[in-house]
Design a protein that fits this description.
Layout: H1 2-11, H2 14-46, E1 57-60, E2 71-73, H3 75-99, E3 108-110, E4 117-119
Helix pairs in contact: 2-3
């Protein structure tokens, strides 16, 4: 049973997917820290000392002694989450551009009769069967 499970992991992309999820979670933690601890404080300072975690639209004030009863739309936290997403998307895009190389397109021969693309070494058109 153990060898069957090992075969499953090695023959499928399950192991690569698991590694990708782990690295992705670690990358998410790093980028979240980058946004919250490095990017947002200077932006808040440039905007007059604003702390984005405190930006909210209060719908109902908290009752005395229990701040958990406050109902608010925390749009500052949402803005931080959007910026975090954008930074993560840019980092993943750059990594994929570096690591994933596309194969060059195969050369094709176009049929002079039906204009269908065919393999470069084809002698007959795959669509109309004429000699090319």
């Amino acid at each position: 049973m153990l060898s069957e499970f090992k075969g499953f992991l090695l023959k499928t992309n399950a192991l690569a997917l698991a590694i990708g999820v782990i690295i992705g979670a670690a990358l998410g933690t790093v980028v979240t820290s980058l946004v919250e601890d490095i990017i947002m404080p200077p932006i808040g300072l440039a905007l007059g000392g604003v702390d984005f975690a405190d930006l909210k639209l209060v719908l109902r004030e908290a009752t005395a002694g229990d701040p958990a009863t406050e109902v608010a739309i925390r749009w500052g936290e949402f803005l931080s989450a959007v910026i975090t997403f954008i930074v993560i998307a840019l980092v993943v895009w750059q990594i994929s551009r570096i690591l994933i190389k596309e194969d060059p397109e195969a050369e094709i021969k176009t049929c002079p009769y039906c204009k269908e693309p065919n393999a470069i070494d084809a002698t007959k058109c795959k669509a109309c069967a004429s000699s090319i």
